[in-house]
Amino acid sequence: MNQTPRYLSPAKLAFALLLTLLLGLGAFLRFSDLSQPLLDFHPTRQLFSAIKARGMYYQTLPEAPAWQKDLSYRQWQGEATIEPPIVENIAVFFYQLTGEENTAYPRAVSATCWLAAALFIFLLAKNLTGSSPAAVFSTAFFLLIPYAIPASRAFQPDPLMVLLIVLFWWSIEVWGRKTTWNWAILAGLAGGLAIFVKLPAVFFVAGGAIGAILAYSNLAAAVKNPKTWVIALLCILPAAAYLYYGLYVAGFLGQQFGGRFFPGDWVDPYFYLRWLLKIETVVGIFWLSLAALGWLVLASKPARVFLSALWSGYILYGLVFPHHIASHDYYSLPLIPIVALSLAPLAAEILPRIWNAATSRFARIIILLSSLFFLLSYTAITYLNARLEDTRSSAQMYAEIGETLEHQPGILALTSDYGYPLAYYGWQNASLWSAADNFEQGFSKQTFEKAYFVVTDFDELARQPQLAEKLSAYQVFAQTREYIIYDLKARQP
């Protein structure tokens, strides 16, 4: 029996093409110039992973110079272990596969994770609103909000964590409506992996789970449902096993949980101001306000309950990690998908009105062409601005310092980003200068058995006139416009 071929309706085809265009533009912005040094977005955090990955990789290279194998190993082992080194091992895999240490590979993995997460944002936004235009709008926000572009291609575990969180939200929301075993297992695996990749994901996983339960059922029914317990076990077991191993078997996690919880900040108004400033950096107060409108006023009851749980998870997360949420903007990276989803009800309300107000075909063509022009112009401007921030010269400077010093020990440095750029690009270990109340005593103690003093942070040197005057008494070993190396073994005549 002949079956009539199924074709996409013009509306569905248009949305499919628009979603494809958004993904293409998002990919273009993220995959362009991936060889850029890791100095464009939180260098300390990116180079933390790069140093660990290089240490692992060089131990597998029998032809590598002995000093590089030794130094890379010491640098790797000198870094703390907090979350499992998943992204570092992914980087090592690609280094070994291609035969070169190129940080473009882990950056490409992060970018791919963000693009994949965008698909689940689309699916979840459509589930919450029943509107394809709203889902496309949420996806566009998720892909094109300025902060997300560098953050989503960074060499760090956060983009992978966001992908797994969004995958969990989508699958747990579907499970909340269908309560089948396949959705329960998918949700449990996604949630468990998200928490395993980075422990703070537990707040967003718990928020999504509670949101799905309250939106479509109740806690009493959920407790009686064996699928709920399977989801909980799958979410908990991977991270629990890692914590047990790190705390009680290997012991490397014993010192990693101090200095993270500061409940005193809860009564400090400046804490909330600093937190708000980080939110402004990540998503912007304008979009935050629109998201609140869509979430609190325009969302259907199940969507409002689900989104409320996501917001509650983020707020609790910030209160548990007050220092980090107020000082590290990338700690609010999961806020981007929450805002994207919360904008969907607003978009579902406004976009059809705009479309229906355009009663002629010509007007609708103008709307489509204007939207296309905006997307292409925004992408071009964002790309050109990113190209202006080339950090290759800075990486080359650190490499030049390492070559000048011949990668020898006994180096003291006044430099940026805790010395990570010098360590990675310069292959140069250095102790970091720390200002002391008793300058002379501090200087003598820190320069003891040190051969050279490297200065790359001239702004900080200007803020320490005593140090500048003290260093001027030593001969200059090497100098450019970007750095000065003082020879601590040779005083001025």
Fold and architecture overview:
It is a single chain. The protein is 68% helix and 5% strand. Strands 2-1-3-5-4 form a 5-stranded mixed β-sheet. It is mostly helical and 493 residues long. The protein has 23 helices and 5 strands. The N and C termini lie far apart (101 Å). Helix 6 crosses helix 17 and helix 9 runs parallel beside helix 12. The protein folds into 3 domains: 43-102, no CATH class; 125-132 and 154-360, no CATH class; 392-491.
Features:
5% strand; 23 helices; 493 residues; 3 domains; globular; 5-stranded mixed β-sheet; mainly alpha
For the report, how would you describe the main beta sheet?
A: 5 strands, mixed
The total of beta strands comes to 5
Total domain units: 3
Question: What coarse outline follows from CA principal-axis ratios?
Answer: globular
Query: Roughly what fraction of the amino acids lie in strands?
Result: under 5%
Question: Given the structure, what is the number of helices?
Answer: 23
Instruction: Give the SSE order as H and E letters.
Output: HHHHHHHHHHHHHHHHHHHEHEHEHHEE
Mean pLDDT across every amino acid position:
93
Kindly name the structural category: mainly alpha
Radius of gyration: 26 Å
Which range best describes the helical content: under 10%, 10-25%, 25-40%, 40-55%, 55-70% or over 70%?
Answer: 55-70%
Q: What strand line-up does the widest sheet have?
A: 2-1-3-5-4
Distance between the termini: 101 Å
Task: Give the uncertain stretches in residue-range form.
Answer: none
